[in-house]
Amino acid sequence: MRVGVLTGGGDCPGLNAVIRAVVRKGVAEYDMDFVGFRDGWRGPLENDTTSLGVDEVRGILPRGGTILGSSRTNPFGIEGGVERIKANLQESGIDALVAIGGEDTLGVATKLAELGVNVVGVPKTIDNDLSGTDFTFGFDTAVNIATEAIDRLHTTAESHHRVLVIEVMGRHAGWIALHSGLAGGANIILIPERPFDIEKVCAQVESRFATRYSPIVVVAEGATPAEGTMTLQAGEKDAFGHVRLGGIGDRLAGEIEHRTGKEARAVVLGHVQRGGTPTAFDRWLATRFGLHAIQAVHDGDFGTMVALHGTEIERVALKEGTGELKTVRPELYEEAEVLFG
Amino acid sequence: MRVGVLTGGGDCPGLNAVIRAVVRKGVAEYDMDFVGFRDGWRGPLENDTTSLGVDEVRGILPRGGTILGSSRTNPFGIEGGVERIKANLQESGIDALVAIGGEDTLGVATKLAELGVNVVGVPKTIDNDLSGTDFTFGFDTAVNIATEAIDRLHTTAESHHRVLVIEVMGRHAGWIALHSGLAGGANIILIPERPFDIEKVCAQVESRFATRYSPIVVVAEGATPAEGTMTLQAGEKDAFGHVRLGGIGDRLAGEIEHRTGKEARAVVLGHVQRGGTPTAFDRWLATRFGLHAIQAVHDGDFGTMVALHGTEIERVALKEGTGELKTVRPELYEEAEVLFG
Amino acid sequence: MRVGVLTGGGDCPGLNAVIRAVVRKGVAEYDMDFVGFRDGWRGPLENDTTSLGVDEVRGILPRGGTILGSSRTNPFGIEGGVERIKANLQESGIDALVAIGGEDTLGVATKLAELGVNVVGVPKTIDNDLSGTDFTFGFDTAVNIATEAIDRLHTTAESHHRVLVIEVMGRHAGWIALHSGLAGGANIILIPERPFDIEKVCAQVESRFATRYSPIVVVAEGATPAEGTMTLQAGEKDAFGHVRLGGIGDRLAGEIEHRTGKEARAVVLGHVQRGGTPTAFDRWLATRFGLHAIQAVHDGDFGTMVALHGTEIERVALKEGTGELKTVRPELYEEAEVLFG
Amino acid sequence: MRVGVLTGGGDCPGLNAVIRAVVRKGVAEYDMDFVGFRDGWRGPLENDTTSLGVDEVRGILPRGGTILGSSRTNPFGIEGGVERIKANLQESGIDALVAIGGEDTLGVATKLAELGVNVVGVPKTIDNDLSGTDFTFGFDTAVNIATEAIDRLHTTAESHHRVLVIEVMGRHAGWIALHSGLAGGANIILIPERPFDIEKVCAQVESRFATRYSPIVVVAEGATPAEGTMTLQAGEKDAFGHVRLGGIGDRLAGEIEHRTGKEARAVVLGHVQRGGTPTAFDRWLATRFGLHAIQAVHDGDFGTMVALHGTEIERVALKEGTGELKTVRPELYEEAEVLFG
């Protein structure tokens, strides 16, 4: 059996661990051979392949990124894209595909499966916002990096009696902010699911200073103020017309400083959160995802993706992972609020 | 309401995070006050207390160990021990206890609960072998430390064409060995649940060298050879009669070296695995355990302990956590075996 | 003998290690007692003190920040400031001061020493740009944090065929950029000492992509383009008139993206570089600085500061550390250039 | 010009960084080509070579170990060994050798240089005990790993009122013990240069407990008790006649426990200290060593080795690095003693 493998969307620590497990088990147990497609769906679309065997996956377990490259190419947005993929797969004698990716990549996989392509999906999102699985790999790494940064900021905040705002990933869901904020002992956590009230934030800042300690504010990149409450507006454009400047972290620090008169500084963690060696948890989860995905291929159980439920890896329908976004439930946030301030 | 808190058994990263969450929420939400008991059950037995309030728990979230101290004192093994505990609790006006510990500590809690003491338990074991909960805090930290050590050993093994044996914690269950071995890309993983065949181990060592790579063997401290298969025996005593020397890691390295003629070295991680700052996962889990435990106290739901099921914190009967040991299921080990060698 | 201790300027990992060593040795060997002044020169100016003994310094060695707080208060800029300091020192019976700080703090110390105050200085700058000493503590920690971030960015750059620009500290000197860039294997390093040519930078970016690899650019916050070569201008102001947005990292990424057509992203490490636990090197250096500083006080060798020369701690005149800035010598940069691209 | 490169002796983080810098600069600046010799002096002895160019050194900067392999082969102990090396070098058209190694490897290099072989040396010892250079790469990494371990042990020691003994590398010199002990805030540091008095050690242990804190003892593997003072003897042999058991750490813990009645546990860090990714300092130093070594080759300045003096890389005669051992000077140890206990 010949199996193609691709990785799509933003990179995420653990992608290589999945690829390695897929190939190692496929070769050793099922005598499969493998073809790597480069840069997500662009690979099968343009038939851009790379050899992928036991030698190619040696030593990649602890490495971040993806040896296959990634892109956001969507064949459904390209005239004749799907037909080209089907033709390329047939021509190369590919019997099945393992598609590793997030909402977009798996969305394509879902539709291709409906069109008869043999696909098994592996869910990937650093933001942990895919439904159908308890956790996705990469998330634990990102949370640990953010937590370590918060640890570091505490001592600076105390020494200088300053507010420190740290902006973490999370465009639509506040999982990284919530977990790292809890783990790092942040005093305020702001997430996309709950538009925040800048006056309440400033009141918390001031009450924290009243105890002689300095506040740390963790804000998800997608968090937004309740309408009309903030002076600073988003999205200043640079000279080339790109919106680069003025993320929520910077704006929030500015607004807090202006309103409370306390020095406030922002740190925007950015890409540092998504690169580098995965944590043990992420390597374990990614490896198990890979082992179970190739088993699903062997079983001919296509149109499914692997998922973590408790401590079990199970299979769910692909569309379960690409349906609605998994956001932070109100009770989880409220449970944490008692530790704020 | 006045609540006593104690930590028993071996220390574990996350104990302080539990204590902090218990106190912070108890004070802020339920207007409770707290008494810290020193050194596990020795505290209430000897009425050895320490003040425990919001000030005492400030800054302890990221710190390993336990500010309350620990011991293995068992009041049921002491003449009149239980009566003294009950008298001391009454005298100090303690309405309820939060007991944080493993099999032994929670075993005492279970029996005290049956005798009418108001106890809520928080499960703790670095080995992850308590039933009733998916994971316990401290385990993730230990696995990450072991994984980082394995990462480091790989390069030395390669450079010197040597076997490296790493002994990790796990007296009765191989969870740390299995998780860190998978995450670190070990070539052989030996756990207490499966007596190993030294000849098969040596065959794997030799087949690994045949690929020009050097083997890493992860062995849980409680792993044992199938009877009669190893020359080296356990438990040499030192000049004072203590069994200090010759753990399984050292013995295994000796035996491999002798049988295969390849240099073999052992590293025994020991206490390094259980100290220091907890990972983000462990801080998050410990914090949530603390928040839910004090809520159980507030609800008067005694004789229970908190537990992680999937991503939910739930309450289970105390005895559920202290019944049978949670060992590695055969299928989990077998799933990983394809990656060995 | 009664000795006052203060820390001024930006915080820096290792400050607490200095304070601890000063106090531990002063108490144990010279029977001194200590007074902590809060927030740099504001402390003696306003006689804001805190008790400082062996108990206060227990456990602070591995902690970032400063238990004494810091500020940028300059008594020479305040009417009657110097007189108030002298009066406060006399009133509290302070025989000598240990002043730990950078150019500004030690500049004040230098002038006070000339006015007869008994001061010994300990040089501190995370940027490593103080003359008179080979290295200052905090620098090694910052370089390691930046290097780890670069390691993480490599995998993302490769996976997405993107340029990643990382802005590190260094307003006037490029030490952090040079060391972390070398250690992280950056492809381009830009420092304040050498105005850069944006066209050459873009040419290097393109030549790197030609090898199928993705470029990492490390840029010191104080690096500047050769005049007139960049479209994007510095210093956009936010709605409150603060210059918050548009540091060199963001501007450079924008310019590279525009000129080369390759996606470029910037990461601004910011305050994460200066907080948290110091590296072993910084703890060792800070501890030795503290031990030698208090010995200088004991010897009555005032107007001096401690300095690292090779592996020796020596004393130099205070003004040596506050004279000219120690910038990156051209030959050091040129030596590294062969590794660019 | 064709240049051979080899790495000998124990592996050490930074070896790959040296190799990379040598090759990158040699190719780019001097148009050299390179031959890698496998496993130290065994390579040229048996003419076991591997290709070594810009592609082979890509990505190796952050990796521990050595891509060239290592061994302790000494051609001077082998009949006709030197002649074979000379013949092999000539046959392969090798004009010069870069030999990276410690006392033994550079000792061979020194003698070969006297016999007319064109050699430049790069000093390597994780123990930092080579004379002629302020520091060697690998040492900083080892010290950081040991310090992190000590940090972790503190919390366990406190929680259990136990003595924790940590054995670190250092057979003949106590540099790692001294630096990590200082950085980790150890209460007792024992080094090979000063035979220790077990009674004094136990007195310090007890005085530490008297302050309600628990002692951490750092002991170099080569530290020895003053004659006749310890009951436990070294060097128990295992069933195969290997001396595996009973290093100084275990023996010391046993003796302390017996004499003081306090629980004592030993941790032996072992090989974990020498593997894995190098610190930023070690990458910087190793890279600069490589750049300067290949320049020395280009300059024809053979029989020399590179060395760090202050912040400068200089050349010294090869024999300077292989003469006497650089041990811890008494005043450095005494300076630190005030922080013990």
UniProtKB/TrEMBL annotation, chains A, B, C, D:
A Pfam family this chain is assigned to: PFK
Name its GO BP terms in alphabetical order.
canonical glycolysis; fructose 1,6-bisphosphate metabolic process; fructose 6-phosphate metabolic process
**Activity regulation annotation text:** Non-allosteric.
Instruction: Cite the InterPro entries for this sequence.
Output: ATP_PFK (IPR022953), ATP_PFK_prok-type (IPR012003), Phosphofructokinase_CS (IPR015912), Phosphofructokinase_dom (IPR000023), Phosphofructokinase_III (IPR012829), PKF_sf (IPR035966)
Question: Which chain regions cross the lipid bilayer?
Answer: none
GO cellular component terms listed in the entry, alphabetical order: 6-phosphofructokinase complex
Query: Pathway listed for it?
Result: Carbohydrate degradation; glycolysis; D-glyceraldehyde 3-phosphate and glycerone phosphate from D-glucose: step 3/4
Instruction: Name the coenzymes or cofactors required.
Output: Mg(2+)
Q: What is this protein called?
A: Pyrophosphate--fructose 6-phosphate 1-phosphotransferase
Q: Which organism is it from?
A: Solicola gregarius
Origin organism lineage: Bacteria, Bacillati, Actinomycetota, Actinomycetes, Propionibacteriales
What would be the name of the gene that encodes this protein? pfp
